Amino acid sequence: MNTMIKLEGLSKTFTLHNQQGTRLEVLQGVDLSVQAGECVVLHGESGAGKSTLLRTLYANYLPSCGSLQVRHDGELLDLTRASSRELLQVRRRTLGYVSQFLRVIPRVSTLDVVMQPLRELGIPREQCEVRALALLRRLNVPERLWSLAPGTFSGGEQQRVNIARGFIVEYPILLLDEPTASLDARNAEVVVQLIAAARDRGAAIVGIFHDQTARHAVADRLFDLRRPAA
Amino acid sequence: MNSLNTAFNNTDLDTPLLRVNALSMLYAPGKGCEDVSFDLYPGEVLGIVGESGSGKSTLLSCLSGRVTPTAGSVSYRDEENRWLDLYALPEARRRRLLRTEWGFVHQHARDGLRMGVSAGANIGERLMAVGERNYGSIRQRSLKWMADVELDTTRIDDKPATYSGGMQQRLQIARNLVTHPRLVFMDEPTGGLDVSVQARLLDLLRGLVTDLNLAVVIVTHDLAVARLLAQRLVVMRHGRVVETGLTDQVLDDPQHPYTQLLVSSVLTP
User: Fold this and answer.
1) Distance CA B227, CA B58 (A)
2) Which residues of A touch B260 (CB under 8 A)?
3) Each residue of B53-81: pLDDT tens digit?
């Protein structure tokens, strides 16, 4: 088995300096390994730290202690010790992250939003465009929207644009935060198929799915997170 | 020649372009910048954020050879791959860098433009500084750059004073980029502009930075601008660096009390 993600004793505490120094201990001593071709679904009530764990895996949040290794270019790399430049490379080539909400940039078209991660790998525009169009079509994003900036789109349309963007690069590791949350059944099914295809090509996937149908369809196993005792 | 160039460029990307070591310039205790160190790599955009008076602009002036620091050093790797100690260079050489391999985009376009000559002459001036003498070719390239920054090319002979603020800022950018600099310093480039104009300029900058593989040091107090353009952030307070990291990490999980205050004070419409 090929371990793609390995967390050991990972903890995350937020210290709110401007709110009486309140300390929020969200993750405590999390151990988790995820293999290539495996989809692990994070499980636990609201506030248990599912999104925090996902963001920490993406180096968006800084872990307080413990180690967080991901396989990058064939080697396990501890993200807690990596430089900013290494982290950017890991994100560019290894770690894909589909957040719950699309970050809209004024004036940038849907097509460009979707293509950007692939463009950053130095792939020629024409090739990126072919892949972006195929994904947008598959996710039923209406063709008349492709040249528009997604700022005025509905929640579901924005989420599908975000998913197309997250799946345009074939990342070895995918982190998915509620990718089916605001989708109807037909589109949620397309996302489930995309996830299954990614897993079949050997991607390691960690996700959060509140929607039971989607969770059952993609999860190889559940990973329980509990709110640490106060 | 081509394959040689590519091979050179690959190693080139893994070597810093600018090395800043323990740089200080204090006008008074806590006024200016103190003990700042970082490396900047080719194609990297570094944002410097902090409130007015935090030392951001002083730092930018020291980095760009415009104000001599009281301590520390700034080293720059030039096009021939030689390391230059910025403040050990003769003044003339330093000025030449600013006109050729570097660019500086001022907050107020009139500080970076020559208001008395035409838009075309403003762009052409930097080309002449690097030895271009053919009038026709200078004009052609000026026209091309006006189009690239979305300026009306029929206004090439108009003076910048007749341009709007947003147009002047785009002209200043064209003037800086025409010589294909490797490193550009920007001081609040979207500062005095209307938001609609800001969005257009940001979009333009984002595209140019990627297409030309520019290294950029951008000073801004606008965290949204920093998020959009910078990969890495340096947060300054009272002249010192209080926090650094990936832009989204610093903004989404700020560690230092001051950064937390800065981030939580922003109004999101």
Assistant:
1) 22
2) 16-18
3) 889 999 999 999 999 999 999 999 999 99
* CB distance B182 to B42 below 8 Å: yes
Coil, strand, or helix at residue B86? helix
Residue A97 identity: Y
Instruction: Assess contact for B72 and B21: CB atoms under 8 A.
Output: yes
Nearest to B264 among A18, A88, A106 (CB): A18
ipTM: 0.93
How far is the alpha carbon of A174 from chain B, nearest alpha carbon, in Å? 18
Contact (CB<8Å) A62/B202:
no
CA-wise closest residue to B210 among A125, A169, A84: A125
Q: Which helix (H) or strand (E) holds A79?
A: none
H-run or E-run covering B214:
none
Question: For residue A229, which amino acid is it?
Answer: A
H or E stretch covering B31: strand B31-40
- Residue boundaries of the structural domains of chain B: 1-101+216-269
Residue ranges matching CATH 3.40.50.300 in chain A: 1-94+171-230
Q: What is the pTM of this model?
A: 0.91
The reply to whether CATH 3.40.50.300 applies to domain A1-94+171-230 is: yes
Give, in words, the CATH class of B1-101+216-269.
Answer: alpha beta
∠ CA B53-B185-B138, nearest 5°, is: 145
Q: Which residues of A touch B253 (CB under 8 A)?
A: 14, 55, 60-62
pLDDT tens digits for range B218-250: 999 889 889 989 999 999 999 999 999 999 999
